[in-house]
Amino acid sequence: MAIVSILLVLGAVFTLYVVYQQRRAAKLPPGPRRLPIIGNLHQAPTGAVWLKFQRWVEQYGPLVSLDFGGTSVILVGNYDIARDLLDKRASIYSSRPRSVFAGELATKNKHILFKPYNEEYLKHQRLEAPVMSPRASACYTPVQDLESKQMLKNFLSSDDYSAQFERFTASIQYTLAFGFRIVTGEEWQLKANHKVLENAVAAIEQGRWIVDALPFLNYLPACLAPWKNTGEEWYKLWDDLHMANMQGALDFDGWNWTKAMLHSKEAQQLTKEEIAWDVGVLCDGGVETTNMTLRIFTFACITCPEWIPKAQQELDAVVGNGRLPDFEDLENLPYLQAVVEENFRWRHIVPLGIPHATTQDDYYKGYLIPKGSTIIPLFLTMRGDTQLYDSPSEFRPERWIGKTGPNTFGYGRRVCPGRFIARNSVAIAFARLLWAFNIRSKDEEPPVMEESRFTTGFVSSPKQFEASFEPRSEKHRRVIEESFESAEKDTTKILNQIRDRQLSAGLEPMVH
Ligand code: HEM
């Protein structure tokens, strides 16, 4: 009798639960039909995930809801909705989805990208803010100036754009973060960084770690959960590199982010290791992102070169051929600025943006967005919107003359802190590369712009292709050589010049 009663109660509770779930599901945005318990897990795409997500947006509209094994996932396929939710309601849309492997095991909650939005996260954001502000970032141009001059000079003897772009972006980030340059690209720190970044991309890869889909599996002992040892191993590599870089930064003369952050008021609430991670992540955050943006630019030069003569005519008219374009020239180069905007639109390095998560239930246009939902802004879908862009696969800077382009650096309270530095690095690199070289395909049949030319994964950029960088004239070659020859290369002097620029801009660069 007692057993029958218990079964009846359990049955009633289960029925109520199913009815509750169905009622809630009825309020969600539309989406593909879900199965009990697993939801849409069986339909979870792999590879170029964004293509399947885009098809769902075409089928169900710009707001799509999915259920991945009990986690509500909301796809956002249009700029207006992304702004409405992620910017205008940022106070409840700025957390991150739980990531067991990458966030908890491989980085032990020390990587800012994976941190949930709470008081603990804000301590780290406040620590970074002074070195990332627009005014502080404007003081870093001497580093971008030197590194772009070396990049041009290196292109005179080698077309290996992968190596040149990586050295350029890494040297900017390492100089600012730790006070030393990446001169050859063979430095051990950069080699160690390769391994760490390779692991980082694998750690975030969707569908790779079963524990991310089924977090309860993390309660298993390590002998039954092999990912735990992998996580521990990757964490150690990462931690050792950050700690070694911090020590290096303290040993170098001159100002750098590590010293500035360690001496700040906010640092008193954090451990040295946490600060080493914060600086390390800021450094890493700018290397691959900027590097991939330059690869995309080069791919645009060889797949749709029609716009290049206009950009070069503008540079010739404003700068002439007797000197390199400078930061001061940028405001007089509207076409070049439009090239930067179009590059960010044409192909974004994170096709699915970086997911946010909600911290409370919300309603939007009558639809329920449940607390704990993963919100995915479909960057590529938005950039390919044919309602907004005529022939979106074509590279047409004209779309942006006198206008700013689409949101490149994310949303709300998680917007990319490196956006001011990144824009300056990209703009000066584009201006100088276009001024200096004719960038052409080395293949008889130049590649065409199509999806299969891009890598899949959390970040995406053009797969390897051949390009030549030929100086536009002998005069251009000489200017490139002389500009690098006469550039200040002493890192300590450059960094102290940056500290002084910050002081005269009324900032406190925080170092004794
Ligand atoms: C062209 C270059 C870059 C692009 C396209 C880019 C793009 C992004 C995007 C889309 C996000 C996610 C924002 C969101 O969640 O809504 C992000 C976050 C981030 N970026 Fe960048 N970024 C670039 C360069 C940089 C640079 C130069 C740095 C450092 C100096 C940096 C550091 C970071 C960090 C630390 C985060 C995590 C923010 C957080 O979760 O609180 N990025 N970036």
Automatic annotation (TrEMBL):
Fetch the PROSITE patterns from UniProt.
Answer: CYTOCHROME_P450 (PS00086)
Query: What is the protein name stated in its UniProt record?
Result: Cytochrome P450
Q: Which domain of life is it from?
A: Eukaryota
Q: Which cofactor does it need?
A: heme
In terms of InterPro entries, this protein maps to:
Cyt_P450, Cyt_P450_CS, Cyt_P450_E_grp-I, Cyt_P450_sf, Cytochrome_P450_fung
UniProtKB keywords: Heme, Iron, Metal-binding, Monooxygenase, Oxidoreductase
Q: Which family does it belong to?
A: Belongs to the cytochrome P450 family.
Q: Which GO terms describe its molecular function?
A: heme binding; iron ion binding; monooxygenase activity; oxidoreductase activity, acting on paired donors, with incorporation or reduction of molecular oxygen
**Which residues are noted in the entry as heme-binding?**
C416
Q: Could you tell me which Pfam families the record lists for this protein? A: p450 (PF00067)
Organism, per UniProt?
Ophiobolus disseminans
